[in-house]
Amino acid sequence: MALSFSCHAAALNTHLHCKLDATLNKSLEKVRDLVIKRKVPSITTFPQKSLEKGNWVKLICGASFEDVVDIRNLSLVYTLAGADCIDCAADEAVVNAVNEGINTAMTILPLRRPWVMISVNDDEDLHFRKAEFDPDDCPKDCTRPCEKICPANAIFKAGVITERCYGCGRCFPVCPYDKIKSISYVRDASETSKLIERDDVDAIEIHTNGRQTDSFEELWNGLRDSVNHLRLVAVSLPYVGDSTVSTMNKMYSILERDLCCLNLWQLDGRPMSGDIGRGATRECITFTLRLVSSKDKPPGFLQLAGGTNVHTVDGLRRHNLFQTTTCENSGRAMLSNSNALIGGIAYGGYARKIVGRVLSCMESEGGLAHIESHPDLLLLALIEALNLVGGVKSYTN
Q: In this structure, are residues 128 and 184 in contact, taking their beta carbons and an 8 Å threshold?
């Protein structure tokens, strides 16, 4: 009797699971229909081709952002939206989360796979730090401006949620009691090499301050035996004045001895500020204009970052850095690079913000962590992502 009941229960569970899967699959039809309607499959190309065309789009999850649930869902949404690359922390759990999101997106609709990039630093860097404070030291009557200003929802009464903090630093100046401190770190080269050798990591980005090359060379020497596994090596740096191009050339001379893939320069205009507003994008556009006009710049694609948001494409148009051509696949007008070295745009804080608003609705409903289990919310998140990515790739409305 017990065996019979057990078999019956197992059969019932299987039936209910299949019925649930069928219902969920039907609910996801709107998601698939939207991606097809916007012609994402026909417009998106292999990531290398996107760089060459100048309509490359990269999602920056954050070099220090380690919330694997959000990272998985962000990766899923932006894969469906046609992003060419997903940039994340050089952490095994984070890389696993990115790939899980990508793989899940491809079960919803078979699309070309975006490249996975991991970010490392050669020295102290704004992108590689965490905020920290002891909540017991906070006065009871504190109005907690740190909690209100945090764009990552990483600060609560219990302190900082370390995996959510990505080091933007906005909480430091607003603390009325100067209780918040910055914890910086440098990624380990040997651990990074292990990640590079994985089949599901395609690219690496080295963050450097652009003022000297000693630490850059030291890091590269620690990675050089593994870089033959990569499709792309990127270097992220800020504008440091007249010495910027000469420093870039020194770094390229260090790279080229072992470089066996594409290379890219990420022009970090105003780090971690894209979610602030229209003005944040000016610095990365100005940086790009300086590099485009330089006759001495080293080989490699140029990609905007640091302050990029929904206003960035319009800014590039005003400076004639993007022009309209006809897409060979769809016959539609699309943005094309007027200078072959401008590969495209990376979106970080802004990209996370517009989709994060939807993800927070899922959390407030107390539902499952997987956004595909909430097709209506996935649809809303996808619309936001398509509007941002489509600004570069010119999807059908």
A: yes
pTM of the model: 0.89
d(CA 158, CA 145): 15
Q: What is the mean pLDDT of the segment spanning 95-111?
A: 97
Do 289 and 325 meet the contact criterion of CB atoms below 8 Å apart? Answer: no
Rounded CA gap, 67 and 329, in Å?
Answer: 37
CB-CB neighbours of 364 under 10 Å: 8
Query: Looking at residues 347-356, what average pLDDT do you find?
Result: 96
Residue-by-residue DSSP string for 273-334: -TTT-GGGGHHHHHHHHHHHH-SSPPSSEEEEESS--TTHHHHHHHTTSEEEEE-TTT--EE
> With bands split at pLDDT 50, 70 and 90, how would you rate the model's confidence at 43?
confident
Q: Are β-strands 181-184 and 129-132 bridged in parallel, bridged antiparallel, or unpaired?
A: antiparallel
How far the first Cα of the chain sits from its last, in Å, is 60
pLDDT tens digits for range 247-306: 999 999 999 999 999 999 999 999 888 788 888 899 999 999 999 999 999 999 999 999
Q: How far apart are CA 230 and CA 261, in angstroms?
A: 7
The pair of structure tokens assigned to 250 is 């020194």
